[in-house]
Write a structure and sequence with these properties.
The chain is of the alpha/beta class and 285 residues long. It is built from seven helices and 17 strands.
C-alpha cells in the first residue's frame, strides 16, 4: 500500500527550509508519496518593503489575524512565492537528489477558490467591512494532476495563489491550502512545520508545548498565540476532509519531518463536542 504525506513548510524565517528538504529526501521511498506546500511570509515582507508596498494585517472579530491582500500586495505575494521561496525550495530538494516540480494554485487549476466579496475586521476597536481584499477560500483541488505527478515519481512543491471563478488569482492561507491538498489526497499525515515546538499552552513559554490539542468542531480554537489560530483551523479542515493525522511541529529541528512523524510536536484532533475541546499532555511511559 502507498503512503501519502503532505508537509507544509512555514513562511517563518526561523524554519530551516534546507533541513526540511534534506529530511524529505531521506523519507523518499518507493510507495511513499510526498507533497511540500509552502508559504513565504519572510520573503513577502522583505519584497513588500523593497517595493514600498504597505504590509497590513486584518484581525477578524474572532481574533484570527490574516494578511490584508489588496491588489498591490497580491502582486507581491505572487512574485515572492513563485520567484523567491519556491525556487529556493526546489534548489534544496534537487541538491539532495529529489525530483521536484514547482506549482502555484494557478498551474493546471491546481487550487480553485471562491473569491471573498468582503471581510469583517476590527480596526481601532470598531467592526469594519473590508472590500479591497483579494482573497478566497479553496473549494477544489486538482487531485488528478497531483496524483499523476506523484505516481510518476515527482515531488510537487505547491503554494498560493489559487484560481477564482473568474480565472484570476486570489491569495489563500498557505496552511489551509496544505490542508485542502492533504484532505483531497486522503493523506496519511499532514505535518505543519512552524517556528515553535508545537501548540503552546503559554505562547511565551516554549516548554509548554502540548502533546495533543483537541480543537472545537466549530468556531475559533482556544490557542491562537504565535499565529496558531489559522494552523489549528487548517488542521481541523484537513481532518474533516479525510486526512488521517495532523501534527504541528518544530521546523527548526535537525530532522523536522521525521521527528514529527515519530511523535514530536502537537497532534491535533477534533473534539467530540464544543464543550469537550481542550488539550492533553501525555504522561511518559
Amino acid at each position: 500500500m502507498s503512503e501519502t504525506i503532505v508537509v507544509k513548510c512555514g513562511g517563518n524565517a526561523a524554519v530551516n527550509a534546507e533541513a526540511v528538504c534534506a529530511d524529505l529526501a531521506r523519507l523518499s521511498a518507493p510507495g511513499r508519496h510526498l507533497v511540500l506546500a509552502h508559504g513565504g511570509s519572510a520573503d513577502i515582507e522583505q519584497l513588500a518593503s523593497r517595493l514600498g508596498v504597505e504590509s497590513r494585517r486584518l484581525v477578524a472579530p474572532d481574533g484570527i489575524s490574516t494578511r490584508h491582500t489588496d491588489s498591490a500586495m497580491l502582486e507581491v505575494v505572487q512574485l515572492a512565492l513563485a520567484g523567491s521561496t519556491k525556487p529556493r525550495l526546489l534548489r534544496h530538494l534537487q541538491r539532495h537528489g529529489v525530483q521536484a516540480v514547482g506549482l502555484t494554485g494557478m498551474d493546471g487549476s491546481l487550487l480553485r477558490a471562491r473569491r471573498k466579496s468582503a471581510l469583517r475586521a476590527v480596526v481601532d476597536g470598531r467592526a469594519t467591512i473590508v472590500r479591497d481584499n483579494h482573497t478566497g477560500r479553496i473549494t477544489d483541488v486538482n487531485t488528478d494532476l497531483l496524483e499523476d505527478l506523484l505516481h510518476s515519481g515527482w515531488l510537487p512543491v505547491v503554494s498560493p495563489p489559487a484560481m477564482a471563478e473568474d480565472g484570476r488569482p486570489v491569495n489563500t492561507d498557505a496552511d489551509r491550502a496544505a490542508a485542502a491538498v492533504a484532505g483531497a489526497l486522503r493523506a496519511d499525515a499532514l505535518v505543519l512545520l512552524t517556528g515553535a515546538p508545537g501548540v503552546l499552552a503559554d505562547a511565551d513559554d516554549p516548554a509548554s508545548a502540548l502533546d495533543v490539542c483537541a480543537v472545537p468542531p466549530e468556531g475559533p480554537p482556544a490557542y491562537r498565540g504565535g499565529g496558531m489560530g489559522l494552523k489549528l483551523i487548517a488542521a481541523r479542515e484537513a481532518l474533516r476532509q479525510g486526512c488521517e493525522r495532523v501534527v504541528i511541529a518544530d521546523g527548526r529541528a535537525e530532522r523536522p519531518v521525521g521527528a514529527a512523524l515519530d511523535g514530536a510536536g502537537t497532534r491535533v484532533t477534533i473534539a467530540q463536542s464544543a464543550g469537550a475541546a481542550g488539550v492533553r499532555r501525555e504522561l511518559a511511559g
